[in-house]
Design brief:
- It contains 14 helices and no strands.
- By secondary structure, the chain is mostly helical.
- Helices cover 62% and strands 0% of the residues.
- Helix 2 crosses helix 3 and helix 10 packs antiparallel against helix 14.
- The structure holds fe (ii) ion (2 copies).
- One fe (ii) ion binds next to helix 8 and helix 13.
- It comes from Streptosporangium jomthongense.
- One of its GO terms (molecular function) is oxidoreductase activity.
- InterPro entries: Haem_Oase-like_multi-hlx (IPR016084).
- Its EC number is 1.-.-.-.
- Keywords: Oxidoreductase.
Length: 330
């Protein structure tokens, strides 16, 4: 993947630095908050821990002055989250599974999945897939950071879920590979990060949230709560996405990503809530509140994402950033 186009003063300074050999630098001043600039800057800092960028030296990953910038960006993001996500009522560790179920049941959001199932046109479905590609092409990676930080029942449960996400040892069954087939079926570029320039701040925020929780051991409870919500809110929406894609002429190969999740996540949600989160709360009861907070953050950001997309479509405009601003546009 190549560095995206900057979206403001912070990414302008950051990207100019990153194309040079690693060196200490003074942090860019973060003035007026611009979500596009801040979320892209944070996404770029995090990406150095995943696949990186062609023109950025790998050694930047642990350059202390860059890590200081990342921490400042994370604090901004954490403050924003604190305003957007009311902390759920603290629950008993032994009832964490029930508390997760209640949070999911109480969550409200606009009917994006139903719209994609019944009404979306082909261009809208392609837009949806472009948004989701930022995560699905690295599907499961952010939650894998938790594995070495867990033990016992929670670790075994997470390993079981991740093994499925990574295709059980078969490349063609990896969920990221299944998603590539969906993209190709829609005549989209399936290369990693191809649409980074097209997705808005809210889409980047949904992925940055996972990296924030994943890269900080202290947030392991929130990371597992986040994954539990992902799994618990997956089966029915994926059934709808698959129906929507078939309605638009998608073949079995293009729909397989969605079909696979209908079945797999019906199982994963049980493992995630009972064994993974239940197991962590049993061994580390002090993390119960953080598990629920991570779950609430996942639900809130998913709602804000759906509101953004449906709002733009209702107004007859694109939910993506304008192609003219982009490099590597479809
Ligand atoms: Fe998956
Ligand atoms: Fe899953």
């Amino acid at each position: 993947m190549r560095l995206p186009a900057p979206r403001g003063p912070v990414t302008t300074v950051l990207f100019e630095r990153l194309t040079r050999p690693p060196h200490p630098f003074d942090p860019p001043s973060l003035g007026v908050e611009d979500d596009e600039d801040l979320q892209l800057a944070l996404f770029t800092c995090y990406e150095l821990h995943y696949q990186g960028f062609e023109e950025v030296d790998d050694a930047w990953e642990w350059e202390p002055s860059l890590l200081a910038v990342r921490r400042t960006l994370e604090r901004r993001f954490e403050k924003w989250l604190a305003r957007a996500v009311p902390p759920p009522t603290a629950g008993e560790p032994e009832r964490v599974c029930r508390a997760l179920t209640d949070l999911v049941a109480e969550a409200e959001g606009p009917p994006l999945a139903a719209f994609l199932e019944r009404k979306a046109g082909p261009d809208q479905f392609r837009e949806f897939v472009v948004h989701r590609s930022i995560y699905h092409l690295k599907e499961a990676d952010p939650h894998t950071w938790a594995l070495p930080r867990l033990c016992g029942r929670a670790k075994a449960a997470l390993a079981e879920i991740q093994a499925d996400e990574y295709g059980g040892g078969r490349r063609e069954r990896m969920h990221s590979e299944l998603f590539r087939a969906t993209m190709r079926g829609l005549d989209l570029d399936d290369s990693y990060g191809a649409y980074l320039d097209r997705v808005p701040a809210i889409t980047l925020a949904t992925v940055n949230l996972m990296s924030l929780f994943g890269l900080h051991r202290a947030r392991r409870g929130a990371l597992l709560g986040h994954l539990a919500v992902f799994e618990m809110t997956s089966s029915l929406p994926n059934l709808r996405y698959g129906r929507g894609l078939r309605r638009l002429g998608g073949d079995a190969t293009a729909c397989r990503f969605y079909d696979e999740h209908v079945l797999a996540d019906a199982v994963h949600e049980q493992i995630a809530a009972h064994d993974m989160c239940g197991g962590l709360a049993a061994t580390e009861p002090a993390l119960t509140g953080d598990i629920l907070y991570g779950a609430a953050c996942a639900l809130t950001l998913d709602r804000l994402f759906a509101e953004h997309v449906l709002d733009r479509w209702t107004r007859g405009t694109t939910s993506l950033r304008e192609a003219s601003l982009a490099v590597g546009s479809p």
